[in-house]
Write a structure and sequence with these properties.
seven-stranded mixed sheet; two-stranded antiparallel ribbon; OB fold (Dihydrolipoamide Acetyltransferase, E2P); alpha+beta; 23% strand; single chain; 6 helices
Amino acid sequence: MRDWLLAAAIVVLLANLAIGIDHSGRQDLSGRATVADGDTLTVNGVRIRLKGIDAPELDQLCRRGEETYACGRASRSHLVQLVGGARVTCSNQGRDRYGRVLGVCEAGGRELNRAMVESGWAVAYGGYTAEEMRARAAPAGLWQGAFDRPLAWRQGDHSVAEDGTGWLARIWDPVVDLFARLVSFVTGGNADEAV
């Protein structure tokens, strides 16, 4: 009987340890943030990738009219402005393939992921489709000129799009628009509920 009790105690101890490890890996992160680029920041030494968005790379160039500009740096500057020195709180949503924490973060009562897409300084990347559609319609941020989506730019020759959207966007954007309309119809108007 004593062996069974000891075995049960060990199982309970191991289960609690496993739950504790899992819980600590999913903990929320809060503190002062350092902004790396338009979709990555560091809180308490933990690198966090804003989930559901994709911002231009720091050295990415875009075009507004006849002029090129450093849209990656502009995107970073906008995130710095949104954070504004406030305490940042991030909900740990897992990790990406590079080991960074995927997070939904807020500062000053504002969700940073959503605000970056709404402002046009990041594009939807698995979330925030309705916000991207509003930014495009405005046009706001990147949508005021020509740019390659960050994913296409990372995979391409790092040139500036000539027609305002880039080659991948010409193929992908109609698919995203159709998907957003379908989701909006099914969910009664909120395209992000199903994304």
